[in-house]
Specification:
Largest sheet: 5 strands, mixed
Pfam family, one: HisKA
Structural class: alpha+beta
Number of domains: 4
CATH architecture of the largest domain: 2-Layer Sandwich
Enzyme class: transferase
Radius of gyration: 53 Å
InterPro entries: HAMP_dom, HATPase_C_sf, HATPase_dom, His_kinase_dom, HisK_dim/P_dom, HisK_dim/P_sf, HssS/ArlS-like, Sig_transdc_His_kin-like_C
Shape: rod-shaped
CATH class of the largest domain: Alpha Beta
Keywords: ATP-binding, Cell membrane, Kinase, Membrane, Nucleotide-binding, Phosphoprotein, Transferase, Transmembrane, Transmembrane helix, Two-component regulatory system
Distance between the termini: 89 Å
CATH topology of the largest domain: Heat Shock Protein 90
Helix content: 40-55%
Oligomer: single chain
Subcellular location: Cell membrane
Length: about 475
Protein backbone atom coordinates (compact mmCIF):
# COMPACT_ATOMS: atom_id res chain seq x y z
CA UNK A 1 0.00 0.00 0.00
CA UNK A 2 1.31 3.45 -0.90
CA UNK A 3 1.35 5.63 2.18
CA UNK A 4 0.85 8.79 0.14
CA UNK A 5 -2.69 7.67 -0.62
CA UNK A 6 -3.42 6.69 2.97
CA UNK A 7 -3.97 10.20 4.28
CA UNK A 8 -6.10 10.64 7.35
CA UNK A 9 -7.75 13.91 6.32
CA UNK A 10 -9.10 12.33 3.13
CA UNK A 11 -11.17 9.68 4.89
CA UNK A 12 -14.24 10.40 6.98
CA UNK A 13 -14.33 6.76 8.07
CA UNK A 14 -10.80 6.97 9.50
CA UNK A 15 -11.66 10.23 11.24
CA UNK A 16 -14.61 8.57 12.94
CA UNK A 17 -12.49 5.54 13.91
CA UNK A 18 -9.66 7.67 15.31
CA UNK A 19 -12.16 9.87 17.15
CA UNK A 20 -13.79 6.80 18.69
CA UNK A 21 -10.45 5.36 19.86
CA UNK A 22 -9.30 8.74 21.18
CA UNK A 23 -12.55 9.15 23.11
CA UNK A 24 -12.11 5.69 24.66
CA UNK A 25 -8.54 6.53 25.69
CA UNK A 26 -9.40 9.95 27.11
CA UNK A 27 -12.45 8.56 28.90
CA UNK A 28 -10.30 5.87 30.53
CA UNK A 29 -7.75 8.46 31.67
CA UNK A 30 -10.49 10.69 33.04
CA UNK A 31 -12.09 7.83 34.94
CA UNK A 32 -8.72 6.78 36.42
CA UNK A 33 -8.06 10.40 37.45
CA UNK A 34 -11.50 10.75 39.01
CA UNK A 35 -11.02 7.43 40.81
CA UNK A 36 -7.67 8.61 42.21
CA UNK A 37 -8.97 12.03 43.29
CA UNK A 38 -12.06 10.61 45.02
CA UNK A 39 -10.30 7.80 46.89
CA UNK A 40 -10.35 9.79 50.13
CA UNK A 41 -14.11 10.19 49.94
CA UNK A 42 -14.71 6.52 49.16
CA UNK A 43 -12.39 5.10 51.87
CA UNK A 44 -14.14 2.63 54.20
CA UNK A 45 -12.24 1.28 57.30
CA UNK A 46 -12.47 -2.42 58.10
CA UNK A 47 -11.22 -4.93 60.74
CA UNK A 48 -10.23 -8.40 59.58
CA UNK A 49 -9.20 -11.63 61.33
CA UNK A 50 -8.69 -13.61 58.18
CA UNK A 51 -4.89 -13.62 58.47
CA UNK A 52 -5.04 -15.22 61.92
CA UNK A 53 -7.54 -17.81 60.73
CA UNK A 54 -5.50 -18.60 57.65
CA UNK A 55 -2.33 -18.92 59.75
CA UNK A 56 -3.98 -21.38 62.16
CA UNK A 57 -5.60 -23.37 59.34
CA UNK A 58 -2.28 -23.52 57.53
CA UNK A 59 -0.53 -24.74 60.66
CA UNK A 60 -3.17 -27.48 60.99
CA UNK A 61 -2.37 -28.83 57.53
CA UNK A 62 1.37 -28.63 58.19
CA UNK A 63 1.18 -30.55 61.47
CA UNK A 64 -1.00 -33.20 59.87
CA UNK A 65 1.64 -33.87 57.25
CA UNK A 66 4.42 -33.98 59.87
CA UNK A 67 2.49 -36.37 62.10
CA UNK A 68 2.80 -39.03 59.45
CA UNK A 69 6.58 -39.03 59.99
CA UNK A 70 6.45 -39.24 63.81
CA UNK A 71 6.56 -42.79 65.16
CA UNK A 72 7.17 -42.47 68.89
CA UNK A 73 5.55 -40.49 71.63
CA UNK A 74 8.52 -38.18 72.21
CA UNK A 75 8.56 -37.14 68.56
CA UNK A 76 4.87 -36.26 68.64
CA UNK A 77 5.21 -34.24 71.83
CA UNK A 78 8.26 -32.43 70.46
CA UNK A 79 6.38 -31.68 67.24
CA UNK A 80 3.42 -30.19 69.09
CA UNK A 81 5.68 -28.12 71.37
CA UNK A 82 7.67 -26.78 68.45
CA UNK A 83 4.65 -25.39 66.69
CA UNK A 84 3.12 -24.21 69.91
CA UNK A 85 6.16 -22.11 70.73
CA UNK A 86 6.52 -20.72 67.22
CA UNK A 87 2.99 -19.35 66.91
CA UNK A 88 1.70 -19.28 70.49
CA UNK A 89 -0.73 -22.08 69.82
CA UNK A 90 -2.35 -24.73 71.99
CA UNK A 91 -2.34 -28.18 70.38
CA UNK A 92 -4.16 -31.41 71.29
CA UNK A 93 -4.40 -34.87 69.93
CA UNK A 94 -7.57 -36.50 71.28
CA UNK A 95 -9.46 -39.65 70.68
CA UNK A 96 -13.00 -39.68 69.35
CA UNK A 97 -14.40 -39.09 72.83
CA UNK A 98 -12.29 -35.98 73.41
CA UNK A 99 -9.75 -37.61 75.76
CA UNK A 100 -6.37 -35.86 75.38
CA UNK A 101 -3.71 -38.32 74.15
CA UNK A 102 -0.95 -35.82 73.28
CA UNK A 103 -0.70 -32.09 73.96
CA UNK A 104 1.70 -29.21 73.89
CA UNK A 105 3.27 -27.81 77.05
CA UNK A 106 1.03 -25.82 79.32
CA UNK A 107 -2.09 -27.85 78.62
CA UNK A 108 -3.83 -29.03 81.77
CA UNK A 109 -7.04 -30.49 80.36
CA UNK A 110 -7.17 -34.26 80.15
CA UNK A 111 -10.39 -34.21 78.22
CA UNK A 112 -12.13 -31.62 76.04
CA UNK A 113 -15.68 -31.32 74.78
CA UNK A 114 -15.44 -31.32 71.00
CA UNK A 115 -19.11 -30.43 70.53
CA UNK A 116 -18.73 -27.44 72.83
CA UNK A 117 -15.75 -26.31 70.76
CA UNK A 118 -17.79 -26.51 67.54
CA UNK A 119 -20.62 -24.54 69.13
CA UNK A 120 -18.38 -21.78 70.48
CA UNK A 121 -16.50 -21.45 67.20
CA UNK A 122 -19.71 -20.63 65.36
CA UNK A 123 -20.21 -17.59 67.60
CA UNK A 124 -16.56 -16.55 67.29
CA UNK A 125 -16.63 -16.81 63.48
CA UNK A 126 -19.87 -14.79 63.35
CA UNK A 127 -18.79 -12.07 65.77
CA UNK A 128 -15.04 -12.25 66.46
CA UNK A 129 -13.27 -10.09 69.04
CA UNK A 130 -9.54 -9.34 69.33
CA UNK A 131 -7.91 -11.92 71.60
CA UNK A 132 -10.65 -14.52 71.14
CA UNK A 133 -9.33 -18.05 70.77
CA UNK A 134 -9.93 -19.49 67.34
CA UNK A 135 -10.03 -23.30 67.40
CA UNK A 136 -10.09 -25.67 64.48
CA UNK A 137 -10.33 -29.48 64.45
CA UNK A 138 -9.12 -32.01 61.91
CA UNK A 139 -9.41 -35.81 61.99
CA UNK A 140 -6.02 -37.55 61.63
CA UNK A 141 -4.76 -41.13 61.77
CA UNK A 142 -1.85 -42.24 63.95
CA UNK A 143 -0.72 -45.86 64.06
CA UNK A 144 -4.05 -47.00 62.71
CA UNK A 145 -5.75 -45.03 65.45
CA UNK A 146 -8.31 -42.35 64.59
CA UNK A 147 -7.62 -39.12 66.44
CA UNK A 148 -8.57 -35.44 66.30
CA UNK A 149 -5.93 -32.74 65.92
CA UNK A 150 -7.13 -29.64 67.74
CA UNK A 151 -5.33 -26.31 67.35
CA UNK A 152 -6.32 -23.16 69.20
CA UNK A 153 -4.78 -19.70 68.85
CA UNK A 154 -5.62 -16.04 69.56
CA UNK A 155 -7.26 -13.91 66.86
CA UNK A 156 -5.25 -10.83 65.93
CA UNK A 157 -7.16 -7.94 64.39
CA UNK A 158 -5.90 -6.32 61.18
CA UNK A 159 -7.16 -2.78 60.54
CA UNK A 160 -7.26 -1.54 56.95
CA UNK A 161 -9.27 0.37 54.35
CA UNK A 162 -11.34 -0.60 51.37
CA UNK A 163 -12.94 1.61 48.70
CA UNK A 164 -16.57 1.91 47.70
CA UNK A 165 -16.48 0.88 44.03
CA UNK A 166 -19.95 0.43 42.52
CA UNK A 167 -19.79 -1.28 39.14
CA UNK A 168 -23.04 0.33 38.01
CA UNK A 169 -21.83 3.81 39.02
CA UNK A 170 -18.49 3.25 37.31
CA UNK A 171 -20.23 1.99 34.17
CA UNK A 172 -22.60 4.96 34.09
CA UNK A 173 -19.70 7.33 34.71
CA UNK A 174 -17.73 5.77 31.87
CA UNK A 175 -20.60 6.04 29.40
CA UNK A 176 -21.34 9.59 30.53
CA UNK A 177 -17.72 10.68 30.09
CA UNK A 178 -17.49 8.87 26.74
CA UNK A 179 -20.68 10.51 25.48
CA UNK A 180 -19.50 13.97 26.56
CA UNK A 181 -16.06 13.45 25.05
CA UNK A 182 -17.48 12.08 21.79
CA UNK A 183 -19.92 15.01 21.59
CA UNK A 184 -17.13 17.55 22.07
CA UNK A 185 -14.88 15.82 19.56
CA UNK A 186 -17.61 15.60 16.91
CA UNK A 187 -19.26 19.00 17.53
CA UNK A 188 -17.28 20.67 14.76
CA UNK A 189 -18.08 17.95 12.24
CA UNK A 190 -21.76 17.96 13.23
CA UNK A 191 -21.82 21.73 12.74
CA UNK A 192 -20.51 21.08 9.24
CA UNK A 193 -23.36 18.62 8.68
CA UNK A 194 -25.84 21.23 9.95
CA UNK A 195 -24.46 23.87 7.60
CA UNK A 196 -24.69 21.37 4.75
CA UNK A 197 -28.29 20.54 5.66
CA UNK A 198 -29.28 24.23 5.89
CA UNK A 199 -27.65 24.95 2.55
CA UNK A 200 -29.39 22.03 0.84
CA UNK A 201 -32.74 23.21 2.26
CA UNK A 202 -32.17 26.68 0.79
CA UNK A 203 -31.23 25.18 -2.58
CA UNK A 204 -34.34 22.98 -2.45
CA UNK A 205 -36.39 26.16 -1.87
CA UNK A 206 -35.07 27.53 -5.15
CA UNK A 207 -32.22 29.69 -3.86
CA UNK A 208 -29.75 28.32 -6.38
CA UNK A 209 -27.22 31.11 -5.78
CA UNK A 210 -26.40 29.64 -2.35
CA UNK A 211 -22.94 28.06 -2.12
CA UNK A 212 -21.85 25.84 0.75
CA UNK A 213 -18.47 26.39 2.44
CA UNK A 214 -16.02 23.50 1.91
CA UNK A 215 -14.41 22.93 5.32
CA UNK A 216 -12.74 19.54 4.91
CA UNK A 217 -11.02 17.33 2.37
CA UNK A 218 -12.89 14.16 3.27
CA UNK A 219 -16.02 12.62 1.76
CA UNK A 220 -18.14 15.37 3.32
CA UNK A 221 -16.05 18.01 1.59
CA UNK A 222 -16.41 16.13 -1.70
CA UNK A 223 -20.18 16.00 -1.20
CA UNK A 224 -20.25 19.73 -0.48
CA UNK A 225 -18.34 20.50 -3.68
CA UNK A 226 -20.67 18.25 -5.68
CA UNK A 227 -23.71 20.03 -4.24
CA UNK A 228 -22.18 23.40 -5.14
CA UNK A 229 -21.50 22.16 -8.67
CA UNK A 230 -25.04 20.84 -8.95
CA UNK A 231 -26.49 24.14 -7.70
CA UNK A 232 -24.35 26.05 -10.19
CA UNK A 233 -25.44 23.87 -13.08
CA UNK A 234 -29.09 24.13 -12.03
CA UNK A 235 -28.78 27.90 -11.69
CA UNK A 236 -27.25 28.14 -15.15
CA UNK A 237 -29.92 25.87 -16.61
CA UNK A 238 -32.74 27.77 -14.90
CA UNK A 239 -31.32 31.06 -16.13
CA UNK A 240 -31.25 29.72 -19.68
CA UNK A 241 -34.83 28.48 -19.29
CA UNK A 242 -35.94 31.85 -17.91
CA UNK A 243 -34.26 33.62 -20.79
CA UNK A 244 -35.86 31.22 -23.28
CA UNK A 245 -39.28 31.67 -21.63
CA UNK A 246 -38.88 35.43 -21.64
CA UNK A 247 -37.87 35.37 -25.29
CA UNK A 248 -40.81 33.11 -26.11
CA UNK A 249 -43.26 35.34 -24.26
CA UNK A 250 -41.89 38.43 -25.99
CA UNK A 251 -42.12 36.67 -29.34
CA UNK A 252 -45.73 35.55 -28.73
CA UNK A 253 -46.65 39.01 -27.46
CA UNK A 254 -45.10 40.75 -30.45
CA UNK A 255 -46.64 38.33 -32.94
CA UNK A 256 -50.04 38.60 -31.26
CA UNK A 257 -49.81 42.38 -31.30
CA UNK A 258 -48.70 42.46 -34.92
CA UNK A 259 -51.47 40.09 -36.02
CA UNK A 260 -54.32 41.81 -34.21
CA UNK A 261 -54.37 44.96 -36.33
CA UNK A 262 -54.42 43.30 -39.79
CA UNK A 263 -56.80 40.62 -38.54
CA UNK A 264 -59.19 43.29 -37.27
CA UNK A 265 -59.06 44.88 -40.69
CA UNK A 266 -59.77 41.54 -42.39
CA UNK A 267 -62.77 40.95 -40.13
CA UNK A 268 -64.04 44.44 -40.94
CA UNK A 269 -63.68 43.83 -44.67
CA UNK A 270 -65.47 40.48 -44.40
CA UNK A 271 -68.33 42.02 -42.42
CA UNK A 272 -68.66 44.79 -44.99
CA UNK A 273 -68.57 42.25 -47.78
CA UNK A 274 -71.22 40.14 -46.00
CA UNK A 275 -73.55 43.12 -45.68
CA UNK A 276 -73.34 43.93 -49.38
CA UNK A 277 -73.55 40.41 -50.76
CA UNK A 278 -76.83 39.00 -52.01
CA UNK A 279 -78.32 36.09 -50.10
CA UNK A 280 -78.57 34.05 -53.28
CA UNK A 281 -74.97 34.69 -54.13
CA UNK A 282 -73.00 31.43 -54.12
CA UNK A 283 -70.08 33.12 -52.38
CA UNK A 284 -72.12 33.97 -49.27
CA UNK A 285 -71.34 30.73 -47.36
CA UNK A 286 -67.64 31.15 -48.03
CA UNK A 287 -67.67 34.71 -46.76
CA UNK A 288 -69.50 33.58 -43.61
CA UNK A 289 -67.01 30.73 -43.11
CA UNK A 290 -64.07 33.09 -43.57
CA UNK A 291 -65.61 35.50 -41.06
CA UNK A 292 -66.13 32.71 -38.52
CA UNK A 293 -62.57 31.47 -38.92
CA UNK A 294 -61.26 35.02 -38.61
CA UNK A 295 -63.23 35.54 -35.39
CA UNK A 296 -61.87 32.26 -34.02
CA UNK A 297 -58.36 33.32 -34.95
CA UNK A 298 -58.90 36.69 -33.29
CA UNK A 299 -60.12 34.98 -30.10
CA UNK A 300 -57.10 32.69 -30.14
CA UNK A 301 -54.75 35.64 -30.53
CA UNK A 302 -56.55 37.57 -27.78
CA UNK A 303 -56.40 34.56 -25.44
CA UNK A 304 -52.76 33.96 -26.27
CA UNK A 305 -51.91 37.59 -25.64
CA UNK A 306 -53.83 37.54 -22.35
CA UNK A 307 -52.18 34.30 -21.22
CA UNK A 308 -48.65 35.54 -21.94
CA UNK A 309 -49.46 38.78 -20.11
CA UNK A 310 -50.70 36.91 -17.05
CA UNK A 311 -47.81 34.43 -16.95
CA UNK A 312 -45.07 37.00 -17.57
CA UNK A 313 -45.16 38.04 -13.86
CA UNK A 314 -45.37 41.64 -15.07
CA UNK A 315 -49.12 42.06 -14.81
CA UNK A 316 -50.37 44.65 -12.33
CA UNK A 317 -53.57 43.83 -10.48
CA UNK A 318 -55.82 46.82 -9.87
CA UNK A 319 -57.35 45.50 -6.67
CA UNK A 320 -60.42 47.00 -5.12
CA UNK A 321 -63.09 45.91 -2.67
CA UNK A 322 -65.94 44.28 -4.54
CA UNK A 323 -69.05 42.41 -3.46
CA UNK A 324 -68.62 38.90 -4.84
CA UNK A 325 -72.35 38.18 -4.47
CA UNK A 326 -73.38 41.19 -6.58
CA UNK A 327 -70.70 40.44 -9.15
CA UNK A 328 -71.89 36.85 -9.61
CA UNK A 329 -75.54 37.91 -9.83
CA UNK A 330 -74.66 40.36 -12.60
CA UNK A 331 -72.66 37.70 -14.45
CA UNK A 332 -75.56 35.23 -14.21
CA UNK A 333 -77.95 37.82 -15.66
CA UNK A 334 -75.61 38.46 -18.59
CA UNK A 335 -74.76 34.78 -19.15
CA UNK A 336 -78.28 33.32 -18.92
CA UNK A 337 -79.47 34.34 -22.44
CA UNK A 338 -76.45 32.62 -24.02
CA UNK A 339 -77.00 29.51 -21.88
CA UNK A 340 -80.67 29.35 -22.83
CA UNK A 341 -79.66 29.37 -26.47
CA UNK A 342 -78.03 25.99 -25.86
CA UNK A 343 -80.89 24.74 -23.67
CA UNK A 344 -78.92 25.19 -20.43
CA UNK A 345 -80.38 26.57 -17.20
CA UNK A 346 -78.36 28.54 -14.65
CA UNK A 347 -78.99 27.51 -11.04
CA UNK A 348 -77.30 29.48 -8.27
CA UNK A 349 -77.03 29.38 -4.49
CA UNK A 350 -75.55 32.64 -3.28
CA UNK A 351 -75.47 34.11 0.24
CA UNK A 352 -77.92 36.87 1.07
CA UNK A 353 -75.22 38.93 2.76
CA UNK A 354 -72.49 40.76 0.92
CA UNK A 355 -69.09 39.11 0.73
CA UNK A 356 -66.45 41.79 0.19
CA UNK A 357 -63.16 40.72 -1.35
CA UNK A 358 -60.09 42.77 -2.28
CA UNK A 359 -59.38 41.60 -5.84
CA UNK A 360 -58.89 42.76 -9.41
CA UNK A 361 -62.50 42.70 -10.60
CA UNK A 362 -61.70 42.47 -14.32
CA UNK A 363 -59.46 39.42 -14.07
CA UNK A 364 -61.75 37.64 -11.60
CA UNK A 365 -64.69 38.15 -13.96
CA UNK A 366 -62.55 36.72 -16.76
CA UNK A 367 -61.67 33.63 -14.69
CA UNK A 368 -65.29 32.92 -13.73
CA UNK A 369 -66.47 33.58 -17.31
CA UNK A 370 -63.94 31.04 -18.61
CA UNK A 371 -65.31 28.42 -16.20
CA UNK A 372 -68.88 29.19 -17.28
CA UNK A 373 -67.98 28.94 -20.97
CA UNK A 374 -66.18 25.65 -20.34
CA UNK A 375 -69.22 24.28 -18.50
CA UNK A 376 -71.55 25.51 -21.25
CA UNK A 377 -69.40 23.93 -23.93
CA UNK A 378 -69.25 20.46 -22.37
CA UNK A 379 -72.61 20.25 -20.52
CA UNK A 380 -75.19 17.65 -21.39
CA UNK A 381 -77.96 19.39 -23.37
CA UNK A 382 -80.55 20.03 -22.07
CA UNK A 383 -78.98 20.52 -18.67
CA UNK A 384 -78.02 22.96 -15.95
CA UNK A 385 -74.99 24.81 -14.66
CA UNK A 386 -74.88 25.34 -10.90
CA UNK A 387 -73.04 28.27 -9.31
CA UNK A 388 -72.37 28.23 -5.57
CA UNK A 389 -70.50 30.70 -3.37
CA UNK A 390 -69.62 30.16 0.26
CA UNK A 391 -67.59 32.02 2.83
CA UNK A 392 -64.89 30.29 4.85
CA UNK A 393 -62.55 31.43 7.61
CA UNK A 394 -59.61 32.06 5.28
CA UNK A 395 -61.47 33.27 2.19
CA UNK A 396 -64.21 32.45 -0.30
CA UNK A 397 -64.86 29.30 -2.33
CA UNK A 398 -66.70 29.48 -5.65
CA UNK A 399 -68.01 26.35 -7.39
CA UNK A 400 -69.17 25.99 -11.00
CA UNK A 401 -70.72 22.54 -11.56
CA UNK A 402 -72.40 20.77 -14.44
CA UNK A 403 -73.39 17.36 -15.74
CA UNK A 404 -71.02 16.67 -18.62
CA UNK A 405 -69.99 14.01 -21.04
CA UNK A 406 -67.35 11.40 -20.23
CA UNK A 407 -63.69 12.18 -19.71
CA UNK A 408 -60.62 9.99 -19.35
CA UNK A 409 -58.20 10.20 -16.41
CA UNK A 410 -55.51 11.60 -18.71
CA UNK A 411 -57.85 14.33 -19.95
CA UNK A 412 -58.73 15.25 -16.38
CA UNK A 413 -55.07 15.55 -15.38
CA UNK A 414 -54.27 17.76 -18.39
CA UNK A 415 -57.26 20.11 -18.19
CA UNK A 416 -55.25 23.11 -16.97
CA UNK A 417 -52.40 22.67 -19.47
CA UNK A 418 -52.08 25.49 -21.98
CA UNK A 419 -53.30 24.70 -25.51
CA UNK A 420 -54.80 21.43 -24.32
CA UNK A 421 -58.20 20.77 -25.82
CA UNK A 422 -60.59 18.09 -24.67
CA UNK A 423 -62.27 15.79 -27.11
CA UNK A 424 -64.36 18.12 -29.29
CA UNK A 425 -66.91 15.35 -29.75
CA UNK A 426 -67.89 15.95 -26.13
CA UNK A 427 -69.69 19.19 -27.05
CA UNK A 428 -71.48 17.64 -30.01
CA UNK A 429 -69.95 20.29 -32.35
CA UNK A 430 -72.67 22.68 -31.16
CA UNK A 431 -70.21 25.36 -30.05
CA UNK A 432 -67.11 26.58 -31.88
CA UNK A 433 -63.74 25.12 -30.94
CA UNK A 434 -61.85 26.94 -28.21
CA UNK A 435 -58.23 28.01 -28.00
CA UNK A 436 -57.29 25.56 -25.26
CA UNK A 437 -56.25 28.48 -23.03
CA UNK A 438 -59.46 29.22 -21.12
CA UNK A 439 -58.74 27.09 -18.04
CA UNK A 440 -55.03 28.00 -18.12
CA UNK A 441 -55.94 31.69 -18.06
CA UNK A 442 -58.38 31.11 -15.19
CA UNK A 443 -55.69 29.23 -13.26
CA UNK A 444 -53.13 32.03 -13.79
CA UNK A 445 -55.62 34.68 -12.62
CA UNK A 446 -56.51 32.74 -9.47
CA UNK A 447 -52.84 32.07 -8.67
CA UNK A 448 -52.04 35.78 -9.08
CA UNK A 449 -54.58 36.40 -6.31
CA UNK A 450 -52.88 33.78 -4.10
CA UNK A 451 -55.71 31.31 -4.58
CA UNK A 452 -56.18 27.87 -6.05
CA UNK A 453 -58.35 26.21 -8.68
CA UNK A 454 -59.15 22.52 -9.01
CA UNK A 455 -61.59 19.98 -10.43
CA UNK A 456 -63.57 17.41 -8.48
CA UNK A 457 -65.29 14.80 -10.62
CA UNK A 458 -67.89 12.25 -9.54
CA UNK A 459 -68.82 10.14 -12.52
CA UNK A 460 -70.07 12.62 -15.13
CA UNK A 461 -70.66 15.40 -12.59
CA UNK A 462 -67.91 18.05 -12.76
CA UNK A 463 -67.23 20.64 -10.06
CA UNK A 464 -64.66 23.37 -10.68
CA UNK A 465 -63.65 25.12 -7.46
CA UNK A 466 -61.96 28.49 -7.03
CA UNK A 467 -60.65 29.48 -3.61
CA UNK A 468 -59.39 33.02 -3.03
CA UNK A 469 -58.01 34.03 0.38
CA UNK A 470 -58.80 37.30 2.08
CA UNK A 471 -56.16 39.94 1.45
CA UNK A 472 -54.43 40.27 4.84
CA UNK A 473 -52.89 43.59 3.75
CA UNK A 474 -56.35 45.07 3.35
CA UNK A 475 -58.67 45.09 6.32
CA UNK A 476 -61.88 45.46 4.31
CA UNK A 477 -62.43 41.81 3.39
CA UNK A 478 -65.56 41.00 5.32
CA UNK A 479 -69.15 39.92 5.22
CA UNK A 480 -71.46 42.89 5.03
CA UNK A 481 -75.16 43.49 5.41
CA UNK A 482 -77.78 43.85 2.74
Amino acid sequence: MRLSKFRLHHSLRLKILVTFVACLFITSLLQISIDFVTQGFRKIPYTSYESSKNRINGKLALIESELEKAHVTNEITALLNKHSEQDRLILYLTDLEGKVIFHSDGVKESKIDLFQIFYEQKKIITNPDPGSMYTTVMPVKYTEQKLFLVISGPLEAEVGYTYDDSKIVNLLLFFGLFTLTFYLFTARKMKQFQLLNNGVEKIAQGKLSVRLPVKSEDELGTLTRNINDMAGQLEEKMEKERLAEKTKIELITNISHDLRTPLTSIIGYLMLLQENIHKDDSSSPYVQSALNKSNQLKKLIDDLFEYTRLTSKQVFLEKQNIDMVSMLKQMIIEFSPLAETYDIRIVSELPEQKIMLHVDAGTIVRAVDNLLMNALKFSVKPGAIRIDLRKEVSGIVLCVANEGTGMTKEQEERLFERFYKGDESRNGHIMPSGSGLGLSIAQSIVQLHGGDIWLHRTGHYYQFFISIPYDSSNGEDHVGGN
